[in-house]
Amino acid sequence: MCQVFAGKDPERYASTTRRLRLNGQSTSIRLENAFWEVIDKISENDGVTTPTFISKLHAEVLEQRGEPDNFTSLLRCACLKFVEIRAAGGPAVIAAE
């Protein structure tokens, strides 16, 4: 069973840092390439660029809960939620729950 996971291409779990602006502040986010692929897909499905999607998500989190303790972890969890919704036959464009 573990071979399903252990046999993955190392490029999928290699990390990449991307620079963008959140609320006018220049920042960088480091994620594994597999997560960047999902975030790029979410952005594409929503018809926006990846930086626009990330900025919008950050702004919505700030509005609802204040500054997140770990925004990178929130992004990973957003990716998992997107994959769950898609696996359950959910819509390509994700609306607020």
From TrEMBL:
Classification of source organism: Bacteria, Pseudomonadati, Pseudomonadota, Alphaproteobacteria, Rhodobacterales
Stretches assigned to the Ribbon-helix-helix domain: 16-81
Source organism, top-level taxon: Bacteria
InterPro entries to which the protein is assigned, alphabetical: RHH_dom, RHH_sf
Protein name (database record): Putative DNA-binding ribbon-helix-helix protein
Gene Ontology MF terms in the entry: DNA binding
Protein keywords: DNA-binding
